[in-house]
Design a protein that fits this description.
seven-stranded mixed beta sheet, about 200 residues, three-stranded antiparallel beta sheet, Rossmann fold, single chain, about 30% strand, SAM-dependent_MTases_sf, Methyltransferase domain-containing protein
């Protein structure tokens, strides 16, 4: 079974995003230029946040050569130089889990802060089903470190907790580019699904 790649997913989402009137897109931590170029060539207003320097340089050159434009920024999700709730769709592919569970939660909340109410997001989180799980030094439950790099591996319970107040459109635990590279893939909507509080007024 072929793994799920970012460019494949972006192409898969395009019609859905156009039907939903998505215009402003945030791409967090892009590892290649193609994922960004697909959005721009389809007419989306793209902001690329905190990409690797090599990707940043390559993307700037390719955009210039094609006469296209995108906003390229080096900043944390919670420090975006744009108004809150600015984006219609945000992508966080393999870039939220290089931290502890607390840090992952903060990064996800930072990403959500940039999305309008009823806007959409697509994120990936490394799974406890991944073949690298438990291979490194455990520093807290399900968080492992190797050579200064941390990774928090999520199980189904943590995914449910993280997304408990979001509308989940599609959720799967699937391999990416190589055998055993399981990640949670989540397409969701930034809609508060928390149950209404009970009326506590006195009778």
């Amino acid at each position: 079974m072929p793994g799920i790649e970012l460019t494949q997913q972006i192409r898969r989402f395009q019609v859905f995003l156009q039907i939903q009137w998505v215009r402003r897109v945030l791409l967090l931590g892009a590892e290649d230029t193609q994922s960004a170029l697909i959005f721009v060539r389809k007419g989306f207003e793209l902001t690329v946040l905190d990409p690797p320097q090599e990707t940043l340089d390559g993307l700037a050159k390719e955009l210039d050569a094609a006469g296209l434009s995108a906003r390229l920024l080096k900043a944390a999700p919670g420090d975006l130089p744009v108004p809150l709730r600015h984006f219609d769709f945000a992508v966080g592919f393999n870039c939220l889990y290089q931290t502890t569970l607390e840090g992952l939660t903060e990064r996800f909340e930072g990403l959500l802060s940039g999305i309008r109410k009823d806007g959409f997001f697509y994120i990936t989180l490394i799974s406890t089903k991944n073949t690298n799980y438990r291979k490194d030094r455990e520093i807290e439950p399900q968080t492992f470190a190797d050579k200064g790099e941390m990774r928090h591996y999520c199980d189904a319970r943590e995914i449910v907790t993280l997304l408990r107040h979001m509308e989940v459109i599609d959720l799967r635990n699937a391999e990416q580019g190589s055998e055993g590279s399981f990640h949670w893939h989540v397409l969701g909507r930034n809609r508060d699904m928390a149950p209404a509080e009970e009326d506590e007024s006195d009778s």
